[in-house]
Structures are given as C-alpha cells and as structure tokens.
C-alpha cells in the first residue's frame, strides 16, 4: 500500500515515479473501459518506454492486471489493462438519527460487504460512539479483508459538520478533538467525515445517477 500511503512531497526521482504511478492508477480507476499501454501513456503524458516500465512495476505489485486483448481488424492485438479490483478497498459509513449502515467497496466500486441496523439510535454519548466503533470493527472482521488493504473510510453523519476539520457540531461534540481525530486513533487508515446528505450527493455525482450531469438536486428524507 506504499503507493497510496507514502508522502511524496519531497521532490526526487523515486517520488516522481510514485506520483506517475498514482496518475496511472487514478486514470484506470476512473476509466469506463480498459486501456492499452499507448492509450494510458497518452492520457497521463508519459513516453511509451517510461509508461511501460511503470506499468510493468504496477503489474508486479498486483495493483493493475491484464484484462484481455483489444479487438482489432488486423495485426497484433494489444493488451488491455485495468486496476486490480481486489488490491484495495474503501469503507462507507452512514450514521442517521435512526439507523446506521456500512458498506465496503473494492477498487471498481463494487460492494463486497454491507450491513445495516435499523434499530440503531443516534445519541450524543460516548456509549453510542463506542458502539459505532464496534460496528466498524465487526464489518472489517466479517468481510475477511486485511485492514492493511483498506485505503480509507468516509463517514456521513446527520447534522452540521465541518468537512475540512471533521468536526461534528450536533453529535459527538464532547470530544476534545474532531471525529476525524477520534476515528484516526482507532483505525490505521485515513478517515473523512461530512454531512450525510452532502456525502449522498457526492456519491451520486461520482458513481450514481448524477454522473456526468452538470446540475442535480438531492433530497434526503
């Protein structure tokens, strides 16, 4: 997971290559179809020799995989590549006044685990917060996914939230720090917190019915 977790602010050749690899993975992750090496290099603005070297290293690390060959009318068929969907995962948690749901997604944003509890009641108490921690840990355990394979967790919670600081004004506001600080101390992956309706809108924008649509209206009842 060094590709995603390592700080690459320092400018050197190794970090430059890591940044280029991240661009390749991000491109393939966003792409609606598999791409060839020349196609990847063109989009991330790399020479074919450099791109081929980096892609081969990503294949050795099992981050991207061969997904077959492109159909052509004649000549040698080029190999297509995509992100290995099982290389890493992300967690989505929604905390509402009545009910809590958690899902785990692979790199293709396919849901590999989900669970919900309609009997959950949101309270501004340490007991409720520790209950949420237990729900997250149980989900990771039940999914059989190695914690080191989890890239991060996004949390949507009812009420006013400062997404930049991760501070919740209405619930769990008794903490010395933010909710991000609290959950980051509990888990070894990055955590992001925002209002549940805003998170719902972002999900629709990037992965749902609002994808590629300029304006959309989200109603959360």
From TrEMBL:
Superkingdom of origin: Bacteria
SUPFAM superfamilies: Actin-like ATPase domain (SSF53067)
Family annotation (Gene3D superfamilies): 3.30.420.40, Winged helix-like DNA-binding domain superfamily/Winged helix DNA-binding domain (1.10.10.10)
InterPro entries, sorted: ATPase_NBD, ROK, WH-like_DNA-bd_sf
Protein family: Belongs to the ROK (NagC/XylR) family.
Protein name: ROK family protein
Species this chain originates from: Maribellus luteus
Lineage per the UniProt record: Bacteria, Pseudomonadati, Bacteroidota, Bacteroidia, Marinilabiliales
């Amino acid at each position: 997971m060094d590709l995603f977790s390592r700080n690459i602010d320092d400018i050197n050749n190794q970090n430059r290559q890591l940044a280029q690899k991240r661009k390749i993975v991000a491109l393939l992750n966003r792409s609606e179809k598999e791409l060839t090496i020349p196609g990847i290099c063109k989009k991330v603005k790399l020479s074919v020799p450099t791109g081929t070297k980096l892609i081969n290293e990503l294949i050795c690390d099992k981050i991207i995989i061969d997904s077959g060959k492109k159909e052509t009318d004649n000549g040698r068929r080029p190999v297509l590549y995509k992100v290995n969907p099982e290389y890493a995962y992300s967690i989505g948690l929604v905390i509402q006044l009545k009910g809590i749901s958690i899902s785990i997604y692979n790199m293709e944003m396919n849901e590999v685990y989900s669970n919900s509890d309609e009997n959950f009641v949101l309270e501004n108490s340490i007991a409720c917060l520790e209950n949420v921690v237990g729900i997250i840990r149980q989900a990771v355990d039940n999914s059989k996914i190695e914690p080191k394979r989890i890239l991060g967790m996004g949390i949507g919670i009812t009420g006013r939230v400062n997404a930049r600081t991760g501070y919740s004004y209405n619930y769990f506001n008794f903490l010395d720090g933010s909710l991000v600080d609290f959950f980051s101390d509990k888990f070894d992956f990055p955590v992001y917190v925002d209002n549940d309706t805003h998170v719902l809108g972002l999900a629709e924008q990037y992965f749902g019915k609002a994808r590629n649509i300029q304006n959309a209206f989200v109603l959360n009842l």
